[in-house]
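Researcher: Please generate the 3D structure of the following complex. Treat every line as part of one assembly.
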Amino acid sequence: AQSVTQPDIHITVSEGASLELRCNYSYGATPYLFWYVQSPGQGLQLLLKYFSGDTLVQGIKGFEAEFKRSQSSFNLRKPSVHWSDAAEYFCAVGARSGNEKLTFGTGTRLTIIP
Amino acid sequence: DSGVTQTPKHLITATGQRVTLRCSPRSGDLSVYWYQQSLDQGLQFLIQYYNGEERAKGNILERFSAQQFPDLHSELNLSSLELGDSALYFCASSGGPSGLAQYFGPGTRLLVL
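Model: Done. Output below.
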């Protein structure tokens, strides 16, 4: 069964600083990988996705993520955060066949300090 | 705006009652997924429909059921509600049977008193 670990429950960074949110997955083959963001009281917005090909994927709002098969990781990065980036971030893994459900990590809450 | 709509936005009801949550997928999407988000369980997959047929089932209670109609909108029915059913219920849609990217609606917040 697939699983996702987001080891950081809460991260605080200063506005303008760089950001890296960690995500490790467990899956028997190369999975589909996703990052979603959820602002308070809102739904989940898709930031970026990895299906195949280039292991560095670009997303919306200046985010990028790198798929590292050897480390079973799909970390999210942003070179310079903005106060509007404060939210909860979820990494998710999807199977390539069979059950198409997404399995989500527990999320990382990002706080931005001025 | 993801293009997925969900109604109602908020729902307050009593234990033992039954409610229906509605979801309209993005235009052209054939797959609809239901997820439950709660503080203790996080985001959990409940069920998937593809073009009117149930395709995958997750941690969905027997008291819960869903269906997808010919116009592709979906309903999630929750019955014999318990306090622990209070949660945010999300619908997501995608373009094909193999999922690919799922786009989420704004959710329905259910409070069972």
